Amino acid sequence: MKSHFQFSNQQRNGIFLLLAIIICLQCVYWFAPNSFFSSNDDIPLDTIEIEKFKAEVDSLRLVEIENKKPKIYPFNPNFITDYKGYTLGMTNEQIDRLHKFRATNQWVNSAKEFQKITKVSDSFLAVVSPYFKFPDWVTNPKPKFQDYSNTYANSKTPKTYEQKIDLNIASASQLQKVYGVGEKLSERIIKYRSKFNGGFISDVQLTEVYGLSPEVVERIKNDFTVKTPRAIKTYNLNTASRDELVTIQYIDYEVAHHIIEERTLRDGFKSIEDLLKVEDFPIKKFDIIKLYLHL
Predict the structure, then answer these.
(1) What is the CB-side half-sphere exposure of residue 283 using CA atoms within 13 A?
(2) Distant-in-sequence contacts of 160-164, Cβ < 8 A, 24+ apart
(3) Where are the domains of the chain?
(4) Start and end of every Helix-hairpin-helix DNA-binding motif class domain (predicted)?
(5) Is-contact 175 224, C-beta < 8 A?
(6) pLDDT-based confidence at 147, cuts 50/70/90?
(7) Given this model, what pLDDT does residue 137 score?
(8) Which pLDDT tens digit goes with each residue over 217-263?
């Protein structure tokens, strides 16, 4: 027993140091704040904050679900396909009624007419009709140009084709003989004619000259006509490419795209006048545009 309790000075110092460390740690455990040693299980939960967090997570989940739903973009109901009608919620019978109506080359021009033909319910119509997009010529019809006449034109005997002067060689002085055409207007007519190598293609191009009213144009056409039209390249409306269409006056890439899209839906145009039903088509310039097209 005596051998177990005999220590050297170095061993005795080591024992005292170990006891000092144990006592210090014990004091820290006794006197330090309880939260320092408490486990996560003892942390009080803020139920209000948790509920707020859950509500935020749920709202984000609903937003994500809503974003994943198929979106409806504005569309022309005349061109609803079977798949499009199915995604909208139409029955096969309703889709077939619309296709049968369109097969007669007729057009749906309002939401009420769409319901009358397809026999969809009021609730369905209320959901999808805000997305209907009809051409501008349906929603905002332009007033048709009236046939302008005046006592001056009526008092003159209409000239035959042979009696009229070729508009492509008419001089300014000859043009000024027409009532309403002065020095400035005659200069504008000749300046417009000179822009093209070969002059006018047709009498309708007079409407392109700035300052000429419809009445004055009719008076000019009573004495002048295009007898030697400028040679131009015409394109087949049903085969022309987009790059060919944009070479035509007043047709840009957007209009050319709509023409080709409409042509594809129709399996080809049946007449040049079908262009008037193309989206964003410049209707007022139709008489000029059709000079460059044929079927």
Answers:
(1) 16
(2) 161/225, 161/227, 164/222, 164/223, 164/224, 164/225, 164/227
(3) 77-134, 151-225, 235-294
(4) 173-192, 204-223
(5) yes
(6) very low
(7) 63
(8) 999 999 999 999 988 899 999 999 999 999 998 899 999 999 999 89
| Rounded mean pLDDT, 116-126 | 91
Compute CA 63 distance to the chain's CA centroid, rounded to the nearest angstrom.
Answer: 26
- Tell me the C-alpha distance between 184 and 10, whole Å: 124
The predicted structure's pLDDT at residue 131? 87
Residue where the block lists tokens 């209320």: 126
Token pair, residue 102, equals 């369109």
**Which of 27, 105, 110 shows the shortest CA–CA distance to 76?**
110
CA distance 179 to 175: 9
In the CATH hierarchy, which top-level class contains the domain 235-294? mainly alpha
Name every residue whose Cβ is closer than 8 Å to that of residue 184 and which is 6 or more positions away in sequence. 211
Tokens read off for 140: 């905002």
Residues facing residue 293 across a β-bridge: 235
| Section 257-278 average pLDDT | 90
Please give the helix or strand (H or E) that residue 165 lies within, else none.
strand 165-166
The rounded distance, in Å, linking the Cα atoms of 237 and 278 is 13
0.85 surpassed by pTM: no
Averaged pLDDT of the chain: 84
DSSP, res 276: G
